[in-house]
Design goal:
There is one protein chain. By secondary structure, the chain is an all-alpha fold. The protein has one domain. It has helices at about 1-25, 30-55.
């Protein structure tokens, strides 16, 4: 489960970086920035739901 969470975090940061690159290249006129940010939001929501499911199923315990 730890690897899945780390992979999602890397994908979220990569999507955010690509959105920044599109914003700088297109100067805010293209739809690529909005699409990259929408992907980031979707990945973040999916990660949140996976974490909730992991806590509920016992795959992730609350101890440090």
């Amino acid at each position: 489960m730890r690897i899945v969470v780390i992979a999602f975090l890397v994908l979220i940061v990569a999507s955010l970086a690509s959105a920044l690159g599109f914003l700088l290249r297109d100067r805010g006129r293209g739809a690529r920035t909005a699409r990259a940010l929408a992907i980031r939001v979707g990945l973040s929501i999916t990660l949140f739901l996976l974490l909730m499911a992991g806590f509920a199923s016992g795959l992730i315990d609350g101890k440090l």
